């Protein structure tokens, strides 16, 4: 078999060639269902929220840093009527203590959770910064905060089909074609007090975090019960305000990125469509799609070879778990878990989250 990449496949992978396998018009009514989305107050996240509301979802919980931005989205994107079904919860995903507090609160308050969109992302940044726990900031926001949040919400996702008569719940993780620029994860560099700065280093840090999104999803897909489907997707080259970050990385030429993608990229609707597909389409269950990577619109696609490295995915999971366990106050946290949900042997059909301090195993 030739090792030369198929040019058409590369165009699909990077969002320059799009085929549509599903339409937002195919979204069924979502009455009574509950979704949670990180970074849902702007860009693609706000559009995903809008589409869920347009299809009559019961409620959407938006986790974001800025309430001001959230209120702008309510007024300008969703409108007062649709926006009445959206709840704002403030959290900085880079801060694991804040994530723990919110995750524990939501796990106790919510009666159901049908969809979890792990969408928030720190963009490209040529400056090197660290989180409150000393983790490189882009990695802390884009991956580690989501990993930690999932530990608290997964029992609810697993229980919802049993308690609310639905066939499955979904976890949808946002990644990027730029994951292909990362050659791996050097865990020793994630906790450096200072690191390289500049355009190249900034792009590499972003690519590394997006690689982690895919590895996390694949490790998660092997740990969840059969009624939870976890998949990861690339929304495409959508010219949102996030593309302004390229100006800070490559200077004035960065302004051309948004201009180019306004001509050849995806629309906001296209960017949101694959996420909504993964959240609602029966095809996901029928095809037993777990831990797969998707590109616009609703197309299965290959990833880089390193993103398929199962050993690296497991190392990332263990490292992320250890970082979460270091957070002050995590020990002793007890999140209700449905009876029979967790088994120590990790047998098929049971959740086995290597995060015992957050989840108390139910009696067998």
TrEMBL record:
Enumerate the Pfam families for this protein: adh_short
Matching entries from InterPro entries are given as: NAD(P)-bd_dom_sf, SDR_fam
Q: Which domain of life is it from?
A: Eukaryota
What keywords sit in the KW lines?
Oxidoreductase
What protein name does the entry list?
A: NAD(P)-binding protein
From which source organism is this entry?
Discina gigas
């Amino acid at each position: 078999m030739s090792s030369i990449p198929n040019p058409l496949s590369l165009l699909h992978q990077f969002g320059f060639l799009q085929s549509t396998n599903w339409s937002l018009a195919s979204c069924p009514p979502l009455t009574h269902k509950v979704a949670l989305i990180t970074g849902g107050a702007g860009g693609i996240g706000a559009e995903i929220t809008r589409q869920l509301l347009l299809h009559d979802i019961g409620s959407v919980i938006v986790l974001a840093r800025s309430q001001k931005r959230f209120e702008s989205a309510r007024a300008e994107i969703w409108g007062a009527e649709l926006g009445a079904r959206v709840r704002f919860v403030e959290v900085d995903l880079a801060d694991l203590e804040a994530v723990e507090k919110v995750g524990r609160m939501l796990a106790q308050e919510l009666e159901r959770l049908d969809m979890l969109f792990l969408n928030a992302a720190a963009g490209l940044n040529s400056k090197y910064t660290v989180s409150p726990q000393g983790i490189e900031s882009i990695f802390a926001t884009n991956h580690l905060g989501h990993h930690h949040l999932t530990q608290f919400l997964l029992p609810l996702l697993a229980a919802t089909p049993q308690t609310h008569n639905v066939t499955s719940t979904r976890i949808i993780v946002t990644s990027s074609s730029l994951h292909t620029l990362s050659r791996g994860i050097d865990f020793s560099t994630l906790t450096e007090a200072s690191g390289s700065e500049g355009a190249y280093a900034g792009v590499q840090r972003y690519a590394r975090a997006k690689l982690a999104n895919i590895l996390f999803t694949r490790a998660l897909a092997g740990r969840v019960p059969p009624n939870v489907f976890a998949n990861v997707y690339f929304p495409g080259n959508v010219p949102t305000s996030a593309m302004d970050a390229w100006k800070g990385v490559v200077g004035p030429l960065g302004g051309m990125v948004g201009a180019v993608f306004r001509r050849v990229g995806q629309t906001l609707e296209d960017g949101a469509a694959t996420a909504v597909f993964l959240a609602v389409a029966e095809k996901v269950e029928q095809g037993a799609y777990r831990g797969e990577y998707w590109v616009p619109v609703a197309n299965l696609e290959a990833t880089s070879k390193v993103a398929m490295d199962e050993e690296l995915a497991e190392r990332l999971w263990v490292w992320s778990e250890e970082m979460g366990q270091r957070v002050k106050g995590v020990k002793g946290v007890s999140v209700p878990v449905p009876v029979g949900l967790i088994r120590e042997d990790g047998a098929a059909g049971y959740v086995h989250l290597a995060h015992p301090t957050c989840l108390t195993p139910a009696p067998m």
